[in-house]
Amino acid sequence: MLLLPNLGQAQFTEGEITIGDWVGSPNYAAVAHRLKFNTANSYALLQHSSGHTYLNAAPGRSLFLRIGNQNGLVLRSNKRVGIGTGNPADKLHVQDATRPTLRLSSNSGHVGQLSMVTANGLYAPGATPGDMVLRSLSDDVSLYSINGNIRFLNETTNGQNEKMVIKNDGKVGMGIVTPLYDLDVAGTIRASSQLRLGGFTNPEMTTLSDGLLFKGSARFIGRQPLMKLNFLDQQVNIGTGLLNHVSGYLLTVDGKVLVEELKVQNSSNWPDYVFEKDYDLADLEEIEAYVKANKHLPEVPGASDLVDGIEVGEMQKTLLKKVEELTLYLIEMNKTIADQQEKITSLEAAQTK
Hints:
The protein has 353 residues and is an alpha+beta fold. Among the domains are: 147-189, no CATH class; 194-253, no CATH class; 271-351, no CATH class. The protein is built from 2 helices and 19 strands. Strands 1-2-3-4 form a 4-stranded mixed β-sheet, with no helix packed on it. It has a 4-stranded mixed β-sheet with strand order 5-6-7-8, with no helix packed on it. A 4-stranded mixed β-sheet has the order 9-10-11-12, with no helix packed on it. A hairpin with a 2-residue loop joins β3 and β4 (52-57). It is rod-shaped and about 165 Å long. The termini are far apart. Mean pLDDT is 74; it is low at 1-14, 19-24, 26-32, 123-131 and 200-208.
């Protein structure tokens, strides 16, 4: 044993200090300064060589830095480092009774970074309140889960709140922990630019301040085959048989339409001109001859013309014109009847004298 007095300072320029009895001491040649501790078959070695300082443990042994009887930092013989634990399960294992934290900070306000060189990823089992950034300087950033879900949570004073989840079957839930669809959102979706739906020819849907704007072609298909709504180059087609453009029409419906009120705004060439003094009203004999030959009124489409449909606005004008012409015929007929009645009354008066 070597006892040193309390001199306040000790300086060794070369050689070594050995504490304990060594049996088969290893050879540390060319080491300038050494402080060795030995007990039984375990030893520790504090040495300085070539400008470097080393703290060594015996082969198969571990190094512990302790405060009181509690482990602070441990380096196990398998080269695993533990902070707060004496049995690290990974290369670096941080353990705390409340919340283990690994903090990366910068005095200049930059974001702390974990650099993963030639590695497969970063495993982060938890995070403190605030931001967590995964950044890649070259390739993609991947979140990887083995047969489990990937969950995104934030923590407040009320506990942890799950905000988004990616299930192991690929379904994504936002605001919902059990998504039933590929994207299941419990809330409102807002797109300040464009919201695109793929799967069809050039589909594009854009949100505006007053609603939705569809650019190009888009299609909505309901649960049943007949429920289809197609937007094709500023045209709207409803129904299964209307997947192609119908020239000249903005809205095409394959089926019946039920409305409480239908307004057709088309005031051009409205048939008020029928009541003008110079209007050429056809003789009833001409109308009779035309009806016998064509089986329908003049200017009114026949059954063969309905194959391509009728225009409601034009048909309403035509019907109104015929009603107005009929009114003129009735007025003339009423005048004729009145004249005849006057003549009959005169004849009856002459016979009674």
